[in-house]
Amino acid sequence: MIKTAFFDTKSYDIPSFSQYSVQSGIEYKFLETKLTEDTAELARGCDAVCVFVNDTVNAAVIDKLYEYGVKIIALRCAGYNNVDIRRAYGKVHVVHVPAYSPYAVAEHTAALLLTSIRRIHKAYNRTRDFNFSLNGLTGFDLHGKTAGIIGTGKIGCIFMDICRGFGMNVIAYDLFPREGSGIEYVSLQELFERSDIISLHCPLTEETRHLINEQAIEKMKKGVVILNTSRGGLIDAEALLQGLRARKVGAACLDVYEEEADIFFEDRSGHILDDELLSRLISLPNVIVTSHQAFLTEEALQNIAETTVGNIRSFFDNDGICQNELCYHCGNIQECRKARKERCF
Ligand code: NAI
């Protein structure tokens, strides 16, 4: 049996992963706690650890896992900005789930957009209270508006199709434009200037951190709607708050937040939220926050479990070769050994 410490377990993880337990030869140690320097000890004696978006997999944690003999860190998500993959190189292999349901995330983005601009969140609360007034519920048509998409990967492309379905004009920015895709690529500056709606679908890197900041918001159209279902760090939340308060930003829909790690995924009702900035954002009538929920569909959970189990099995069965392994050479054609179907190290 492959012993796997499963950190940050939620109730919805257990059924999807347990169904593969016997046939896959993986024995899970389901732990509610997140992986941190203090909790890494719980992985002692395990062959693998399975982690999610808000587990800490920094240099210190990697060193500890290596010392405990952990061979593989299996991310049950796509993004890996919480993992120091450079530190992991040569010590512990890192695998991820590159795509589990890009539709889930793109559709959630659309749900947030429609909820926000048609004031559904307000109408829902009103009619439950038998308040049938329409005052303050005026929205606007999406048809004919311009959507600016940052990151035209799997999720960005699906969201672009949804926008086109509404009759929107779509423009995009990507560091690596898709040749021959017919997508109208523009510079970031032009995207900020022309878009009525801006949606973020690029990864969080040193380059993209606070991509949406004070200067970017200054360039945007008055009333712009900003959607972020990617990673919180893409937005300087303080600058966003100022933009909203100045009535420059018309609305913001956030499924992610830079400081979400100790807040999202938990029931904090009945507590006073210590994060002043998040409290202020949530208090605004034109801000909708969901707590990193965009991925949460039955199809996605099934795909996450299937791919994660496949990744772990592939690693132990194929002499450490796993198609979904990540290392800091990824994307660098010269150095990427995985591209040559070899193990990363
Ligand atoms: P992907 O890898 O298919 O696409 C990412 C795109 O961003 C690529 O086209 C890439 O060229 C582009 N890109 C990279 N660096 C860039 C830069 N500096 N500026 C502009 N574009 C850049 O990824 P996918 O599957 O579409 O996911 C996008 C993001 O969505 C992920 O990075 C992840 O953070 C987030 N995500 C959020 C989830 C949620 O539940 N809220 C669930 C899954 C993913």
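^ NAI complex. The radius of gyration is 21 Å. The domain at 102-289 is CATH 3.40.50.720 (Rossmann fold).
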